[in-house]
Amino acid sequence: MFVTAGSDKIVRLWNAADRRVVWTNNRLASVIQAAAFHPDGGCVAIGFKKGGWMLLNSSTGDVILVRKSEPPEKISEIQFSPDGSHVALGCHDNDVYIYELQNGGTSVSLKARCKGHTSSVSHLDWSKDGEKLQSTSRDYELLFWDPLQGEQITQTESMRNTEWDTQNCVLGYTVIGIWPDGADGTDVNSVDRSNGKQLLATGDDFGNVNLYRYPCISDKAEPRILQGHSAHVMNVRFLSDDTRLISVGGRDASTMQWKVVKSA
Questions:
Q1: Strand-strand pairing, 75-80 and 63-67
Q2: In the sheet that 20-25 helps form, which strands lie side by side, from edge to edge?
Q3: CA-to-CA distance for 71 and 56, rounded, in angstroms?
Q4: What is the reported pTM?
Q5: 258 falls in which pLDDT band (50, 70, 90)?
Q6: What does DSSP say about strands 53-57 and 43-48: parallel, antiparallel, or unpaired?
Q7: Which pLDDT score is estimated for 264?
């Protein structure tokens, strides 16, 4: 299963195997900018262009929780902590908001607000133990946090051996090789590491989906280029079982599935 959402203000849950829509929620009042599944698959968090966010039931698409005015600006990224107890939202006011889920997700409280970026937050990753967070911004900063305290970790050498639950940040040692010579900092829109930690996928401004071996630490890394989109590729994500890669286009408004085939 995977979710798509966008400028049409509609959320759709798809069955990847059957390539059909399971449910549609077209009752939302704002353009959608970000979405993320809870680790147990029970709900989906949705972030809006005008600020605010909500939780939807994954089985039905019904609304569980709504936060209309907080965070106050466009939500660019959402990530649940590995244990599902907290959710981080990257916002265009340059901050990362950390919420604690309560009563099975029917209520939340603002746990912390991470301040330090000088531009809007673009990507987020939690550490495997849920005790650290990394974030990137539109001005190409990579910052580290104690998310539950809202404090920036400035001793970056202490983060060297951190095991990250995901790799969605486009900056970092393990993704150095995704940036070719002469690349503009805006050329790579999205990155995702397979759950088996063997593959790394990116979506770029040239309409390409690029597949690398993970970690991608060579500046001469050569990707397998997957072509099909006619415009910018805005997001890429592996399914939870790594059998497929989903890519979402921008102006071409298309969603594509790529079957992951293991080499002999």
A1: unpaired
A2: 2-5, 11-15, 20-25
A3: 18
A4: 0.96
A5: very high
A6: antiparallel
A7: 60
